[in-house]
Every structure is written in C-alpha cells, then in structure tokens.
Amino acid sequence: MNTQEKKKLAGMPKVELHLHLEGTLEPEMLLNLAENNSVSLPYRNVDAIRAAYRFADLQSFLNLYYLATQCLRKEQDFYSLTLAYLRHCRDENIAYTEMFFDPQTHLEHGVPLTVVMAGISAAQKEAEREWGVLSGLILCFERDRPAEGTIALLEEAERIGGIIGVGLDSAERDHPPGKFQETFAVARALGLHRVAHAGEEGPPEYITDALDTLFVERIDHGVRAIESPELLRRLREEQIPLTVCPFSNVSLGGFGSLQQHNVGRLLDAGLKVTINSDDPAYFGGYLTENIIATWEALGLSFEQAVQVQVNAIEGSFAEEQKKRDMLQNLMSYLDQH
Ligand SMILES: [Zn+2]
User: Fold this and answer.
1) What is the pLDDT of residue 52?
2) What is the predicted pLDDT for the residue at 62?
3) Quick one: pLDDT at residue 101?
4) Please, which residues have CB within 8 angstroms of residue 199's CB and are 6 or more apart in sequence?
5) What's the confidence (pLDDT) of residue 280?
6) Which residues are catalytically annotated?
7) What is the CA radius of gyration of the chain?
8) How many Å lie between the centroid of ligand 1 and the Cα of residue 35?
9) For the residues of 54-93, what is the DSSP string, one character each?
10) What is the pLDDT of residues 108-117, one digit of tens each?
11) CA of 4 relative to ligand 1 center, distance in Å
12) Strands 134-142 and 165-169
C-alpha cells in the first residue's frame, strides 16, 4: 500500500466487529482506575505495564487481562473506558462498531450487571450524539467457566436492555463451544445475534461445532479453518464472516510474524474476511494500524482493503437500511478520493 493509499484508508469510513471493551484499557487509565478504586497492582508505572504486555500465549494474556479488569468498579469507570474507545473510533473514522464485554468477570468482582451496562450505554449514546459514531453491544460468555447461570445472566441483560447479541470468548483450548448450546438457543429464541470465538487456538472442529450447535452468524478469528479444506469450502459457500485480528494472533503466538499470517490466503480462498483489533491496548494497535501493517507485511492490495470493509458492513448486525447507507457512504468516499 503506497502513502496515498494509506491516507485514503485512514480517512475511509470503517467498521469494526471484534473488539473487547476490557481490551481497550490503556496503561494510563489502568493506573488511574487502580488508584481511584484502591486496587493494588504489581506494576508501578506505565513502562512496567507495557513490559508485561509480552505474552507467550492466550492464557498468559488472559491472566493479565483479568487482573486489570479488577480495576473497573463503578459506572463511571465503564463509561470512561467505553468513551475512550469510541473517541478512537471517531479519530479513525470507524463509523460503526460492535463491542464485546465480559459481565461474568465483573460479577465475580462484585460489580452488578446494571452498573456495567449503564456505564457502557451512557458512553454509546454520547458518542452517537457528539460524534455520530454508532455502536452495538454483544454480551460474551467466558467458555472456561461453567455454563450454569448463563441463561439467568442473559435474561437479566435482556431485562436491562441494550445488547444486540451474545458471544463466546476466553480460553479456547479444551473448551468446545457445545457446552453453551442451551444458552445460545435461548439467545436465538430472544431474537439476539450469535457469534463465537473459534479456530483461534482451538482446532477447526470448534468452528464447525460453533456453526452447528450454537447457530452462530459469524466466527471470531477462525484462522485455523485453513487446516480443513472441507471447512474452507463451507465458509466460502455460506459466506460466513470471519473477524480476523492480525496483531492479536501474532501477539499470542498463533503466527510467528505478520508476514506468516494467513489472512491473504483466506481472502484468496474467497472467504468473507474482516479485520479487527480485538484487544488493542494489549496487542499494539487499533484497527487502522492492524490493516496497514498487515497489508504491508503481506503485500495485499488497496482493493482488498476495500473488500474487507464491504465484508464488515455486510457481516455486521446493523439494520438493512443502515448497511445500505454505510455501503453508499463508502462508495461515495472512494469516488471522491
Ligand atoms: Zn477476541
């Protein structure tokens, strides 16, 4: 991608579909929250935290991630966290984003769901009003916890209102999606959208399992689909969107470097690939940086970057009219630049 194209990409209206709000907690905010909420962290300053952001694998990242979430206590904390990410969206021209949150972690820390959701919702409204940044919220269940209690949690979230769907995240290895079949069936009956992390560290079978038992509409990550020609064919034929997160995959050791990432091969195979930042505070960059660095490492074209944005619009859970508007905005931006 040349300098001109990079500029064009930066200004282009974009969509993000795989983003954990807790993963946007930057070291500076983490230190402030720890102090305000009297939580003691094993890090004295921002440099010490950044040094801790060198992970061996998904589990080592999750250990730090869950430690940091202990500093999120009050409605104001969730509001500030969400608003800071949505301000990033404004600055990067991300017009629409679908954000994950992990309520079970916060409940374990004694923070009620109403507090978490009130803070997030206030920030969503403010970002829409002030900057025109639109967002949806997806409640994630942590797959390494028991499925018991997740239906009650889902029903409580529905009573509060404000979620557009459910997801499945956290440590994938040895935690196949099927365990949450019943919970996802309830979500489906409630008219909620469904996604799941699968094929990140887990085998391709987990992707198939998520499609067949949880009836997910998108696969988060899904990069290990490449190991199964049969699954690749299915993903292509059914045009199941994959929310690929290159910086995250490299940070957690899924690929040795961006040059070794398989996103170019997935695109060549005709899959509906999207690019996302996952946990940008931890993995070295937000959406635009993910796209530019990956495209440079793999020598992908500007047209492929546009294709990925079209995929993200089509693969989003925005209403049909909103999708048409977003496609229209993208095309008129490209015409004008
Ligand atoms: Zn994720």
Assistant:
1) 86
2) 85
3) 98
4) 206, 207, 219, 221, 222, 223, 224, 225
5) 96
6) 200
7) 19
8) 27
9) --SSHHHHHHHHHHHHTT--SHHHHHHHHHHHHHHHHHHT
10) 999 999 999 9
11) 31
12) parallel
Residues 309 and 294: their CA atoms lie apart, in Å, by 15
Q: Which of 18, 22, 196 is nearest to 111 (CA)?
A: 22
**What pLDDT score was predicted for residue 318?**
98
Count Cβ atoms below 10 Å from residue 290 Cβ, excluding itself. 24
CA of 244 to the centre of ligand 1 (A): 9
Q: Identify each DSSP E strand in 183-328 by its residue range.
A: 193-198, 218-221, 242-244, 273-275
Instruction: List phi, psi (to 5°) of 196.
Output: -155, 145
**Fold category of 3-29+74-336 in CATH:** TIM Barrel (3.20.20)
Outline where DSSP puts E strands in the chain.
Answer: 14-20, 94-101, 134-142, 165-169, 193-198, 218-221, 242-244, 273-275
Supply the DSSP symbol for 305.
H
- Other Cβ atoms closer than 10 A to 159: 9
Q: Using the mean position of ligand 1's atoms as its centre, give its distance from the Cα of residue 207 in Å.
A: 14
**The Cα angle at residue 54 between residues 110 and 300, in degrees rounded to 5:** 110
Please report, for the chain, how many H helices and E strands are present, in that order.
Answer: 17, 8
At residue 107, the pLDDT reads 97
- Domain extents in the chain: 3-29+74-336
The annotation status of 175 as a binding-site residue, yes or no, is: no
Rounded CA-CA distance 200/248 in Å is 10
Q: Is 18 annotated as a binding residue?
A: yes
- Name residues of the chain where pLDDT drops below 50: none
Ligand 1 centroid distance, CA of 20 (Å): 6
Residue-wise pLDDT for 121-142, tens only, equals 999 999 999 999 999 999 999 9
Instruction: Give the integer Cα–Cα distance in Å for 86 and 79.
Output: 10
20 is in an annotated binding site: yes
Residue 4 confidence (pLDDT): 94
Give the CA distances from residue 258 to residues 211, 248, 292, 298, in Å, rounded to whole numbers and listed in that order: 28, 10, 11, 7
